[in-house]
Amino acid sequence: MASELSSQKFDDTFLPVFSEESYPLHENPASLPCDQKAIIRLAGFEPRSLVAGPGVRSVIWVAGCLRRCPGCSQPEYLPFNVGKNISVEELFERIHALSDIDGVTFSGGEPFEQAGPLGLLAKRLRNDGLSIVSYSGYRYEALVAEPDKFKVLLDEVDMLIDGEFRLDAIGSHRWRGSSNQRILCLTDRIKLPAEEVASEMQITLHGNDSGFSLSGIWPPGVIQELLRELGHRDFSMEREIMEYDEEQNPGGS
Fold first, then answer.
1. Which domains does the chain have, with CATH numbers?
2. Among residues 11, 3, 105, which one has the least CA distance to residue 57?
């Protein structure tokens, strides 16, 4: 598998930096046969976010990333065995039941490592009238250069926010963690806002219990510090999806 990675035509600035040999291949949905790609490895889900792209959006965080950018704001989503498997059909029905959202945002992890199942989901969501925003640590040019692997999802994305997170380019940018990342409108479904605003963050409390979830672009270290402080006050981040599934993925990364 390492030789296959080295021969892929990614932009040399955005090559995977974490070898696929470090985890069992069956844990990576991108490596499954086509007839099994209707399964998404889901790391987190936020029904309604105001800070993950234009309008009100559901956010899907997928598990697994080969980039491993230093300072990643979601390091718990980097392994491919975090979270749980969910069918495209089940996730679509969950989102379809929400009547007050404008679209869906894919984050992670690296959405394009699960391009097959996410492409199927995105197509159904767009047919349902929703727009699709996706983050990727790969540049747009790198995704276009590998159509066999990425086209099925890229064709369904209305807005792509591309490029790895870089600590040396960190700043307060709307929907972006660092200035090298680009916001690319790939269709006419989404228009860029007329003015640039500072990055936005959202904390969602879950009813009357002590659970909460986070979305938006958080500066490095802020989430960890926030979790520590809230933990002292008996608050806990939602772990229903984020927990490792050892039964399905023993000995994962």
1. 2-186+197-237 (3.20.20)
2. 105
Give CA–CA dist 100/49, Å, rounded. 11
Q: Do 100 and 129 touch, CB atoms closer than 8 A?
A: no
- pLDDT tens-digit map of 82-104: 999 999 999 999 999 998 999 99
pLDDT reported for residue 67: 82
Torsion of CA 226, 231, 235, 239, to 10 degrees: 90
Question: Concatenated DSSP letters for 32-57?
Answer: S-GGGTTEEEEEEEEEEESSSSSSSE
Which residues, given as ranges, of the chain have pLDDT below 50?
A: 1-13, 20-27, 29-37, 210, 239-253
Output the six-digit token pair for 128.
Answer: 């349902």
CB count in 10 Å sphere of residue 32: 17
**Using CA of residue 56, residue 102, residue 180, residue 61, what is the dihedral sign?**
positive
